[in-house]
Amino acid sequence: MAARLWLNGTKAYLGAVAFRQCYGRGGTGQMTARKGVNPAECDVFVIGGGPAGATSAALLAEAGLHVVLADKDKHPRFHIGESLLPHNLPLLDRLGVRGQIEASEMRKHGIEFVSPYHGKSVRYDFGRALDKRFPYSFQVRRSSFDEVLLRNASAKGAEVVEQCRVTDVAFLEPGDPVVTASLADGTSRQWRPRFVIDASGRDTLLASQLGLKERNSRNNSAAVFGHFTNARRLEGRDEGHITIVWFDQGWFWFIPLSDGTTSVGAVCPVDVFKNRTADMESFFCTLIASSPEIAKRLQGATLKGGVTATGNYSYFAKQLTGERFLLTGDAAAFIDPVFSTGVYLAMLSGFWAAEAVQGCVARPARATRLLRRFEARNRKAAASFTWFIYRIREPAMRNLFMSPRNMFRVEEAVLALLAGGIFDGWKVRGRLYIFQVIYYATKLSHLRFWFFKGKQRHVDCPRAAAGS
Fold first, then answer.
1. CA-to-CA distance for 127 and 124, rounded, in angstroms?
2. Is 353:374 a contact under the CB 8 Å cutoff?
3. Are 182 and 142 in contact (CB under 8 A)?
4. Do residues 328 and 199 make contact, with C-beta atoms less than 8 angstroms apart?
5. For 165, what's the count of Cα atoms within 13 Å in the CB-facing half-sphere?
6. DSSP character at residue 424
7. Cis peptide before 174 (omega within 30 of 0)
8. What is the per-residue pLDDT for 246?
9. Percentages helix, strand, coil for the chain, rounded to the nearest 5?
């Protein structure tokens, strides 16, 4: 993938010229610019400076295009989603920032699952995955991680405008889009890009504006989280493991960070939040108390910075591309954080977004096909994880994760998936199909057990009554 995205100076220059020829200026009388305002021109306008936006902006600027990236915040800024996957590493290498991340963040060698229903914990090491090339990843402070990516985009030539909130994107026929944004000083500014990349994250700017956003009814969850000091962590090499702890109302994440703080959050069905009677911090404390494992790890710990809640957790856009725009990262979809896929899928989508736009540059006649391929790739990547995510709270799935067996190297394949190896070919995919068969067989055995147990209770009750 890195090879496909790499353009030398000559190809980048010719591509940029072709892009300007393909998407030439037109419809000047149709423009909806504010009176007295002359919109600035650029090749690509990227909305949002998170992992998806900064990644695509860096690659496109490196390819010789005039890229403007607008972010509503001033970096560094807080953001949740601190756990990366091993397959983030080649993406960081391609961007040239892995060394900066390696020097400051905590290594993550695996995952720990804790089940109160089984009375034990199980640890999985990425080094045992089917693909041994990526044995670790990182736990990151998103404030510093995202700033590294953003400054990298700027260093590669993107024009980065911070504290710039995009309020509207007008799509004109004919003519280029007009992007309107509000700046920190209260003034407005407009741009006329030839292409718009929406990487606005959970703000889902274009999906909301164009009526494309839908809630994911299969994963109707919400989350509450905070950061703690002096939390009890795993020891030695396993200190950087992410821990997933099941409890009756959902599951907890427990993510250790290199600065000594630990990110802790609870993900539950929305109804759990709607039925609460206390304020959010007290509610969070109640959830923690209901999980003996999390309560034990936070005994003596101190909550820093308060508690944050987020609803409408899982959603997707019905359409990811259109005439002169595409949606990438969380602006396109968000599933669930249980397997730490957020940053990985966002960066991967950012690579694909850059490749799609570069393809439109080099071969304008193939634009429709390239954008269709971009959309298909994103859908396939998300689908690779959703089958597991939708079933993570099912007893059958818990049993399989808490009783690992490497028959037919299935455990190694599942680890490859959890590491981000969603395109590792049939050697992984075939074994994941075997895992799914095992899952359904396990679920069927559970159903038979409860059926016969209920039938036995029905038969036993009259006997108990007769003997009384």
1. 9
2. yes
3. no
4. yes
5. 9
6. S
7. yes
8. 98
9. 45, 25, 30
Residue 152 to residue 158: CA distance in whole angstroms = 9
User: Residue 313: what pLDDT?
Assistant: 75
**Is a pLDDT exceeding 90 seen at residue 158?**
yes
Q: How far is CA 405 from CA 24, 345, 400, in A?
A: 59, 28, 8
Number of residues assigned to the chain: 468
Tell me, rounded to whole angstroms, the distance of Cα 273 from its chain centroid. 23
Residue type present at position 122: V
Comparing CA positions, the residue from 194, 260, 250 lying closest to residue 223 is: 250
Residue type, 295: A
Domain boundaries, the chain: 2-105+140-215+315-387, 221-310, 390-448
Q: At what angle do helices 342-362 and 9-22 cross, to 10 degrees?
A: 70
Strands, E, within 315-426: which ranges? 315-317, 321-322, 325-327, 333-334
Cα separation, 350 vs 159, whole angstroms: 17
Let me know: does 208 contact 85? Beta carbons within 8 Å: no
What is the residue-averaged pLDDT of the chain? 89
Q: What is the DSSP string of 280-299?
A: HHHHHHHHHHT-HHHHHHTT
90 upstream amide cis, omega within 30 of 0: no
Please give the pLDDT value at position 15: 47
- Reported as a single tens digit per residue, the pLDDT across 299-321 is 999 999 999 998 767 899 999 99
Q: What is the pLDDT of residues 408-461, one digit of tens each?
A: 999 999 999 999 998 888 999 999 999 999 999 999 987 765 555 555 554 454
**Residue 131 backbone dihedrals phi, psi, to 5 degrees:** -95, 110
Helix (H) or strand (E) holding 255: strand 250-256
Q: What is the C-alpha separation between 467 and 261, in angstroms, rounded? A: 61
Measure the CA–CA gap between 72 and 125, rounded to whole angstroms.
Answer: 38
End-to-end CA distance of the chain, in Å? 75
CA 445 – CA 439 distance, rounded (Å): 10
Q: Could you say which architecture CATH assigns to the domain 221-310? A: 2-Layer Sandwich (3.30)
Q: What is the spatial distance between Cα 375 and Cα 333, in angstroms, rounded to a whole number?
A: 11
Taking the CA atoms of residue 259, residue 109, residue 134 and residue 201 in that order, the dihedral angle to the nearest 10 degrees is -50
pLDDT digits (tens, 9 = 90+) for 6-46: 333 334 444 444 444 445 444 333 334 444 457 889 999 99
Q: What is the pLDDT of residue 45?
A: 97
**Taking a C-beta distance cutoff of 8 angstroms, is the pair 323, 331 a contact?**
no
Which residue from 156, 25, 348, 91 is spatially nearest to 356, judged by alpha carbons?
348
* Of the listed ranges 23-32, 171-180, 269-278, the one predicted with least confidence: 23-32
How far from chain centre, in Å, is Cα 308? Answer: 18
CATH of domain 2-105+140-215+315-387: 3.50.50.60
Mean pLDDT of 379-408: 94
